[in-house]
Design a protein that fits this description.
Strand content: 5-15%
CATH architecture of the largest domain: 3-Layer(aba) Sandwich
Helix content: 40-55%
CATH topology of the largest domain: Rossmann fold
Distance between the termini: 37 Å
Number of strands: 13
Number of helices: 16
Amino acid sequence: MYVCGITVYDYLHLGHARFMVVFDMVRRWLRASGYRVTYVRNITDIDDKIIRRALENGESTGELTTRFIRCIDEDAAALGVQKPDHEPRATRYVPQMVDMIGRLEEKKLAYRSASGDVNFAVRRFPGYGKLSGKSLDELRAGERVAVDASKEDPLDFVLWKRSKPDEPKWPSRWGEGRPGWHIECSAMSWKHLGETFDIHGGGIDLVFPHHENEIAQSRCAFHTRIMANFWMHNGFLQVEGEKMSKSLGNFFTIRDVLADWPAEAVRLAMLQTHYRQPINWTEAGLREAQRTLDHWYQLTAEVGPGMLCADVVDALSDDLNTPKALAAFHELRAEAAKGTQAAAACLKASARLMGLLQHSAAEWAAWRPRSLAIDEGKVEALIAARNAARQAKNFKEADRIRAELDSMGIELEDHKDRPTTWKVKR
């Protein structure tokens, strides 16, 4: 399985979180089903955005990408996303890209333009547009970038870019330059998985032009009938019903979200929508996911994992139908709440398969949002002051202190036979 990864020039956002969780779930389920899986997720570490950001920061592209690759690893691990088996970086596969471009040029499917770039001649590949289901004329009407006048056809795309003086560059038969974006994935999937492999994945926004271009390059370079046996694309992510964007003030990095919510709640919220469908990301959905996990942790605290639930297996076998699987979880929860230990054990096993219930119940209960920066000493002092006020029958002061704690996000629980306890409000 090859999945198009991240262009590393900034922190990961919620859209990145979705595709990472989705394809982590695909791999988990394939392996649980008995398949031997080689999972490749690439890193694009050379790109116009990377070069521009590095220049703005006054650092090298290598320094910039190294820093953000480390951040990607941290964010992915927090979400329970397992490391891919291979994580190739584009800059380490330039010779393979040059090899592929040379093959395409020899077959008269690539040409060097007056600008010095090497382009793929789209109309010379009859199968172009098959993945997106559009004709060449429709694809041309949907172009999103300015047309380079040196191209033979506006649909032709760059394989090798002539580098500017202040840009990173590599030697080639066409002079010093750097690879285009699309050729990267074709070369890296070829070197790790071969000319044809089983599953190619990525976001729905990559169908055109990126995946169409990958197919064209790979099939033509190696004269194969197909590039991948199956294509899987996850749907878009919206925030509270709107497209996520910085201009709307609803743009969130993974780090933003994990400051306020436990990572497993984020993961569960991601899995409640089928991967092919668009997902509407809401705070209400996150809160519900957290409450659900609270209950699951309580019900499974005293049991070990049991067998996988048959209904969960059936759901995940049906195009990774995670919403249907989670519906089966709720049936298990109802049985576990009645004291059925077998149901609780099945719930724990099924949840762990999906990257959930990975902590102890005590660890889960102890989670605190980083953004609140709770001073536990202050909380305990206020609780002690409130208890003293209650003993003195100064209920007005006791209520005031409780209101102060409430404003800090602290929920109190008074008990008859033991001291007052507290927790962060969900």
